[in-house]
Amino acid sequence: MKNSIGREIPEFIPGLGKVTGFGGAFARKPVGRTAGAALSTCLPRADKLLASIETAIDAVGLKDGMTISFHHHFRNGDRILNRVVEAIAKKGIRDITLSPSSLNTVNDALIPYIEQGVITAIETSGARGKMGRFLTEGHLKKPLHIRSHGGRAQAIESGAIHIDVAFLGAPACDRYGNINGIQGQSACGSLGYAIQDAAYADQVVAITDNLMPHPLFPISIPQTQVDYIVVVDSIGDPAGIASGALRYTKDPKELLIAKYAADVMDYSGYLQQDFSMQLGSGGASMAVGRFIKTKMLERGITGSFGVGGMTGVFAEMMEEGLFKMMFDVQSFDIPAIDSIKKNSNHLEMSASYYANPHNSGAIVNNLDAVILSATEVDVDFNVNVITDSNGVIMGASGGHCDTAAGAKLTIVVAPLLRGRLPMVKDAVQTVVTPGETVDAIVTERGIAINPKRLDIIDNLKNSGLPIMSIHELKDIAYKLCGKPEAIQLSDEIVGVVEYRDGTIIDVIRRPIF
Amino acid sequence: MEKLRRSMMFVPGNNPGMLLNAGIYGADTIILDCEDAVAITEKDSARNLVFQAISEINYGTEVAVRINHISTPFGWDDLKRILPAKPDLIRLPMCQGPDEIRQIDEFISEAEQKNKFPAGSIKMMAAVETPKGLRLAYEIASASPRMVALAIGAEDFIANLKTTRSKLGRELLAARGQLVLAAREAGIQCIDTVFSDINDEEGFKKELELIKEMGFDGKSVVNPRQVSVVHDFFAPTAKEIDHAQRVLAAYQEALEKKSGVISLNGKMIDLPIVARAERTLAYAKATAGKGGK
Which residues form the signal peptide (chain A) (predicted)? Predict the structure, then answer.
């Protein structure tokens, strides 16, 4: 079948069964009730503390075929996921479905366990490095299942993902299982991506290197959801968890793109008193903040709130009174971690609060503007952030399609050319975010506005910005680089990209290398 | 209004990526460099790349080429290879006197004829980087009708003076002043030297303030990030535009009333003030919509 954006999706996908094709960003109405964790009990004076990860695997009764989950708040400093899988493998358990909120290059170490059949399915936001390449080669029993952050929360709450055991890294954990992410040597700030896991997994194991006296304060994940606690020497490498302050890019091309994006936001009419915004963490999208800040100061306006993965750059604006609040699902750098610790208006939020389309209203719905990066875009404004120009998995869905759907103004920033390759094409290799939710594509050589946004086109008429049609933009790129050759693909589906509502927006077919 | 040359941006002639993107930053003039930015072993490849870039890429603005000096083994070869691509402007470094300009002028004339380009369509400018060049600045500026600008190259000049470059730029004060005088006498533009510490935005702005006051028309820049800063600086402020408009209105009113004495807010206005107001408004019009990058 062809889904509503013309992508060929088989009705039956080996390993996944019958699937529903994407039918439009808001087409699917949820039915039924939320799923739930298995009932449990903990007797008074019982001790949740276990001696080791191995003991915990025994205690939860982990068996072949189960689903285990992890959060990715420790990014490349994570010392939990690989270690737990290693322990599972040693016990001879096989056929595990791995459901982390995302994978980082540190998780390349899992490749041998996929080869051995310990892990046979992965559901996550994306993959990079060797793992991305390995998964593109199709070594899993089921296709890699890509979900956005909002889509993952939706899938957990609806029961599409059923987590048997969540192994949650806990920077601070008390003896009865209350957890936060802001204290201890492995502090990572917000634990937003772990909150649904803790609430919906049948069993939860907290793994910590910072056991604190009960009761912990503040509490992000409550003791009522945590079954066992394991203390280890180190759950994360601080250098890999968060960088020092993320700084604005100095790349003149990225700065130019950022300046254009800020101007588009300004002329579109969304830069008003009490506006809200999210900035992606890429060079150009983050640098938009610098230009927005200048405009706010010049005009004497202040914003309402910021959303998303948070950086010190945003925290600084809030501390200067330019924004009232920050909703933080993931803290990207040390200043952001410090800010969530000390600022009561810097709030931790769950992935569901952030971006789940099937609750009574995620915060992305309140966004005025979001600036997002892209690997490539096409003339239908569809965006790819997951596969590279060779069709290899190298990115993550993240909150891309969630924020694009929610925000009143969605601006995608990307260089028109990367090396010898055009980034605006006739058709992207893999669609993650549908063009109907994207309003503007901003490149260093021109800006294209989605033709359905007549209001924005009108507002930008006298801006002096290099506005052109998306086809003109593509033509500039093709003229400079030539038309890229199509990637030769096999019929084997190695990945599916699920839209936030649970429908399949695209599939990843194995390239013929 | 003469051609704006607020920013003249150097781009290394042997870097394909930079050559490809040179046009996107909105510099008034792009200078594709075959001289200092290019190592001796790369001179031939830079020459070829610059030829291809001018032939194939529509930069949408003035394109200059800084050739190697004609006393080096590379200068004439640069011209030979590049002139058939029809650059808008040739920039000669280390200019020591009017003879050099005349020799190049002649060479360009031949190339124009051979390639059937309109006579005089390729312009020239020269950078003065030695005390001798400075002494002959007017002669250099007026040596050819192709000449559109003089520039100062500070690093070599200061080395020749046996001093060092300072934040305040006092060591360059006399040279800058003389250069502006020579350029103005010859009726051409005057372009200031590069400011190479690209992370010192405050220092850069101080220098811009100084050269604008001294009468320079623009500045050579080495990094695209400097372009918009220069343009912001050279753009007339809203206050300046408002004042100019009121000066012209008062002048117009006086003309209509046939009044000999013109005044605005109790201040006498004479003809040079009117001329300056006209220049401000023409400049504002010429820069409107061109400073957005």
Answer: none
